[in-house]
Amino acid sequence: MNTPFLLQKLKLLTLTIFTLLLSCSVQASHPNLVITQSDVLDMRKAITEQGRFASAYEKLKANVDLQMALPIEVPIPKDGGGGYTHERHKKNYQLMYDAGILFQLSQDKAYADYVRDMLLAYAQLYPTLDLHPARKVKSQNAGKLFWQSLNEAVWLVHTIQAYDLVYSALSAQDIISIETKLLKPVALFLSEGQPSTFNKVHNHGTWATAGVGMAGYVMNEPEWVDKALYDLQKSGKGGFLKQLDELFSPQGYYNEGPYYQRYALLPFVTFAKAIANNEPQRKIFQYRDGILLKAIDTTIQLSYDGLFFPINDAIKSKGIDTIELVHGVALAYNLTDAAGYLDIARQQDHIILSGDGLKVAQALDNGLAEPYAFRSVAFGDGSDGKQGALVIMRSQLAGDQALLFKPAAQGLDHGHFDKLTWQFYDQAKEIVSDYGAARFLNVEAKFGGRYLPENESYAKQTVAHNTVVVDETSHFDGDVEVGNQNAPVLNYFETSPLGTVASAKIDTAYQGVELKRTIALVNLAELEKTIVLDLFNVAASGEHQLDLPLHYQGQLIDTNFALSVSTNQLSALGTKNGYHHLWLKGRGLPKHRLAKVSWLNENGRFYTHTSLVNGQEEFLFTQLGANDPHFNLRNEQAFVRRVTNKNQHQFISVLEPHGEYNPGKEFTLEAESQLTELGYSQQGNVMLVDITIAGVSYLIAINQAPEASIKQDFQYQDQSFSANGRLAVFALNDH
């Protein structure tokens, strides 16, 4: 028996059968994912005409042509995040994707050949790979091309689209090699090979299900699509649809916060687009009352001056121009024709080469953009929207201002222990700040580009945020699982021309302690000013040390109380839970009724934080950087208001923006606080704050009544008042 001859005949027979299968109608519809044949025809016409789309095409073509002139590099994986091989494989999937688009638009087979050659190189390499050598020892989701399988899933999401785009130019032999040696093994590795990740309701699972599901559409594997949608057992307990159910609130807020909302957005919108193009009967964009469209819009709302609010494990430089949201905005405009999305697209200044991108480009060329409406809103957290909320307050009275209040859920393992914290922004700058993540993304020298150890020891700890710390111990004792099971309660939220107010509480962050915070961004129309009113109540069953930090951006200008300052030697504020990373630089015990701390921000404006004190609150001034041998932490400033041996305390304060500092033109205006009086009282359900600022006296009433009896009448200084909503503001001089 001539065994080699029989094997050769069998190989030829297999190839013939496969070729016949390729000719069937199911396989003849490429591209069939995000970009369709109809899109291609429209785009080919558009690149022959002047406009944004043609310009984007020429720019991409010039870039890819430069890269194609260089040898193809598919290195053996070696490095973690930020290392050469890691970055090379990232560049490769983007190059394949871009070249695939250029092939469809130009019909120049050289682009398809480039993608083919790179895919064949990967098909030769991938079967030889074990788990990545730079993987974390205890990692349950190691990749092969990358140190974690998350990056492998991102690679597949892009690469399967590139393959779809050049499919029609490939020979049957190339298709067999690419699918059997590369794409199928990757898809099986990310699904059956890592069931815990694939079935997980988490952004890692989103990327994996998107990649495998799209591979199923391209390679005619409907079983893969079903598993991607419903989990490996097709039980519905996991998979893409379950992620849509559980990771977003009914308003479209993503449980892990804005940074991960924008990151997860790309697989969500990409796979959804593929589902809509292949199985329109699923009506994926109508799923759960249009949750994907809500998620895109919410992602935009979770930004200020082009950058996302940096809560949880967030890198502060990420903003609305990120490629994930570019795709999301293009899809949102295509689905809605809402001209506000064109305003965001104009700011992004990035036209993607797709059917959605073409529609955006043509609308911008025709001048159809209208200003996008940012608003004050409380985004309910959790799949039911009832696990607390992320509150955004905005005002345009004294410039573009935003306040973020966070009575939100834990946010899974990317969440921080910062219940009821807040941040404030004014004139395009962060004023009251949050640290975000302790990480140098993809900088290999800094812990391989991963989250730094200080992310756990400081950035996630409660003292790193602007909320109460009890006995120098973080909320939920720093236990993520406990935190995920306990969310704050949003008592109320209301916005009106008077301002915006919200109140929330939690009684599970510490055993036997209830934390309740009420924050308002108040418009003082007569003065054309805004102030932040902060009322934080702590009630406990026993006595505790209570700390309330405030992290600020800027240069300390003045305090109205004496400070004892360490000038020759520093010591850490504490020994653990983030306190050990804070240098104690000075301290003071205000005796005055009003304790003022003023600083100057780089926006050229002054900010004064005024506290109502009774001689019991000590102020501790800190600088970040203690116990940091590798200089991983930024040297940021804070002051901590501390009381000891208390079972009940109320922190009352006002943040007042004021004045201007202009060293270029050599003038300074209103460098000192204009707030001269601050008082607090309560009548029944109404909290009353009286202030005098710039010579004008105001009474601010916050109505905490049950919804059924929202209107409240009350007396103040022998005068009658009525609060018809949650927030009422009275200028007493004119009353």
TrEMBL record:
Where in this chain does the record put each Alginate lyase domain? Answer: 72-301
Record InterPro entries: Alginate_lyase_dom, Chondroitin_lyas, Hepar_II_III_C
Where found? Answer: Periplasm
Residues of the Heparinase II/III-like C-terminal domain: 382-644
Tell me the keywords, alphabetical order: Lyase, Periplasm, Signal
Return the SUPFAM superfamilies for the record: Chondroitin AC/alginate lyase
Q: Cross-referenced Pfam families, in alphabetical order?
A: Alginate_lyase, Hepar_II_III_C
Q: From which residue to which does the signal peptide run?
A: 1-28
The protein depicted here goes by the name: Alginate lyase
The species is Rheinheimera aquimaris
